[in-house]
Amino acid sequence: MKLLEGVKVIDFSKWLPGQYCGMLLGDYGADVIKIEDLAGDATRRFWPEKEPGMSFWHLMLNRNKRGVALNLKAEGGRELLLKLLAEADVFLEGFRPGYLARYGLDYETVHKINPRLVYCSITGFGQKCHKPAHDLNVIGLAGLNSLDDIGRACVSEVQVSAIGSGLNALSAISMALFARGRSGEGRWLDVNLYATALSMQVTGASALWGCAETGDKPFGRIAHYYNIYRTKDGRYLTVGTIEPKFWQRFCDLIECPELEKRQYDFVHEDELLQLLEQKLAEKTQAEWLELIGGAEFCVTPVCSLEEALQSELTQQEDIVQEADCDLGRLHYLGGPVKFSAAQSAITRRAPRLGEHTQEVLRELGYSEEQLTELRAAKAVL
Q1: Which of 55, 133, 279, 303 could disulfide-link to 137, CB 3.0 to 4.6 Å?
Q2: Which positions of the chain have pLDDT values less than 50?
C-alpha cells in the first residue's frame, strides 16, 4: 500500500512552492487533482517545452496529478471546486491573502462545508502582507543573498525559499493529517516564503545574537579550512576540513605540514587564505582528485549539474527515474526519502490542460448533460 493512498488533495497552486509540495504528495500515493484556470498555469509555457503547453518544468512538477480546468468566476466552476473540497482531505492554494475569499473559498467558509479538511495556504509573506514576490526577492529580504561573508550578492540556481516552503508545506500537511486522525478536525496552515527563508538563518541568527552579547566578532561560514578554492584548470574544490584530523590530512595532501597547528590561526586568516589559494592553483581538479584517491577528509570537487546527475552517488540513490508515455521517454528526479515498506513512484505524466476534467466530474456525479452545459457556459474546459 502506498503511504498516502486514500488521501485526496486539491492542488490549486500556480507556482513552484505548491507545485513541488503537490508533486511529492502524489509521488507517495495521494490522489492529487490539479486545478487550473482555462488559460492554464504560466509555468506550462516555460522554456523549454516538450510540446506547446507542456514545458519540462510542468512535466517534472505536475507528474502524478490529474488535471481539471475550471473558471472560478463562473458559478458552475466555483460550485465544482466546492464539491471537490467537500470530499477532499487537503486543499493546497498559493494565492495572495484574501483572493479566494472573494469567491467564498476562504478557510472559514470551506471549514463549515468540510471540517476535516486540511487547508494549506502558501504565500510570499503570510496573511498580513499582500506584496508580490518571487524567491529572489524573498531571500534578499531575509538576508540570504549575502552568502560569502563579504556581502557579495549572488543568485542561486536553487530557489531556496520556494523549495523550502514546499517542504514546509509537506511536513505541515503531514502533521495536520496525523493530528486529524486523533481529533477528527482539519486546520488552516499558513506557510510563507519569507518565514521559511528567515528560519533557514537559524545558525547565523544564533551567532549574531551570541556575539552581540559576548562582544565577539561574527565569524560567518567561510574560513581557510572551510572554503571553495579554484584549481589550475579553472575548476573548483570544496574544502570542508572542520575536524582537526581532516585538516591534518588536507595539509599532508598539499604538502604543507607546517600548517597543521594553524587551523584556528584566525589572526592571520587573510595570509592563510592566500597561501591555500596559491597552493591549490598549482594543480588541476583532476590531479588533486587523483592524489586524494579513496581517502576521506571532506575535500571534494564542485560538480556541474550534469556531472552530479551522472555521478556514482546519484546512481546509488536511484533518484533519477525514467518513464515512457505518449510524449516519449521522460526523465524525473524522484522523491528524496526512502521508506522501508513503501517508496515513491511516478505512475502518471503531468496532465494536459483540463485532461481529466470530465473524468473527475463524472466521479462527482455530474451527468453528460450537465457536462455539456458547463462546457457551453465556459465554466470548465
Answers
A1: 133
A2: none
